[in-house]
Amino acid sequence: MTDYAIFWEWLSFAVRWTHVITAIAWIGSSFYFIALDLGLRKTPSLPPLAHGEEWQVHGGGFYHIQKYLVAPDFLPEHLTWFKWESYATWLSGFSLLVVVYYVGADLYLIDRNVLDVPQWGAILISMASIGLGWLLYDTLCKSPLGNSTYGLMGVLFVILVAMAWAYTQLFTGRAAMLHMGAFTATIMSANVFMIIIPNQKIVVADLKAGRVPAAKYGKIAKQRSLHNNYLTLPVIFFMLSSHYPLAFATQWNWLIAALIFLEGVLIRHFFNTRHARKGQPYWTWAFAISIFFLIAWLSSGPKLAGGADTVAAPSSQAFMQSPHFEAVADTVLSRCSMCHTAEPVWEGVSQAPRNVILDNPVAIANHAVQVAMQAGYSHAMPPGNVTEMTDEERAMLVAWYRDGSAR
């Protein structure tokens, strides 16, 4: 069981690392092509059917890039497709959701003070809600509303705000923020998989068959790609939010999530306008900074209790029944609870680190894995060993975790 726990920690790390790597690749190519598209210029020397061109310099060389809205009159032998970055990002992200939130549902997904549901029920709700996001968005895009950029974005924003609130009524605050990221990222990746790439394949197939491709396929793909561009920054925020309790563990966490979408759109609008050489809309930064301070103010409101810190999860019973539990509880309460409590008393600590509450026996049992990994197998906690946890106490934490896991 000890080997299994360590392996699972490293598996989580590996999947997270993969997710970050693939996300960097996807976001990088997305930002680059949007900037390239906005920077295209028409010149007298353009070939027939070419829409625009761009000269760029990088890495000691010059690049001459031309864009065809439909397609050139011939199909090049080598055609690079940008799709695997998106697919790998979503697949690794969903894998991380499974490894952390589904396998660890009792701790990270379910807050029994919010909604007491079995693990399988919470997981089904999670998967259904993520799929619902794409169905709603795609239906809107294909409706007459899809012809109105501002109308579509307005309705989509209302849906996102509603989902942010709904997630806080279903899951832990941390899981609610993470699910907003998964909800949005699924829309983005499905855009690539269901719309952008299929449309591009239709164009390629028409070229091979000697037909003139319809311009509508490129227009639709461009619209979805632009939507992805504006949704990217909020998704990055939600990916990072689990490290910051002030974002996910306060009363107004759902409103903070909603405001993040506005802030992300404003920032992308600045760069998109600049890349299109249509000016420098610095006013967007004024609004973005104002929203940031509003978010900081909202986070100063009442804090939410740590996930399931007063209700024992089913998986915690074995740890509470261990003969080591009483000694472990005493150790954690004396070495950790001055910071890991709703009202920390350690100087300089205003919020329980990552909102992990360890000030009562039930909470300690619920966080058995974290306690063992952070203070038993490793010396990550307490930071700098400021409370002078002994090697014997750390060994006892490991023995307790091994005993509870074997039950």
Concise structural overview:
The chain has 15 helices and 2 strands. It has helices at residues 2-39, 84-102, 105-109, 119-142, 149-168, 173-208, 215-240, 245-248, 253-275, 283-298, 317-320, 325-335, 361-366, 368-377, 391-406; strands spanning 50-58, 61-68.
What key phrases describe this protein's structure?
single chain, 407 residues, mainly alpha, 2 strands, elongated
Give a written overview of the molecule.
- This protein has 15 helices and two strands.
- The protein is mainly alpha-helical.
- A hairpin with a 2-residue loop joins strand 1 and strand 2 (61-68).
- The chain is 63% helix and 4% strand.
Proportion in β-strands = under 5%
- What is the C-alpha radius of gyration, as a whole number of Å? 25 Å
Question: Main beta sheet, described?
Answer: 2 strands, antiparallel
Question: Tell me, what's the shape?
Answer: elongated
The helix/strand order is: HEEHHHHHHHHHHHHHH
Q: Which class of secondary structure composition applies to the elements?
A: mainly alpha
Tally of contiguous helical segments: 15
* Helical proportion, percent range: 55-70%
Adjacency order of strands in the biggest sheet? 1-2
> Average pLDDT, to the nearest integer?
88
Number of strands: 2
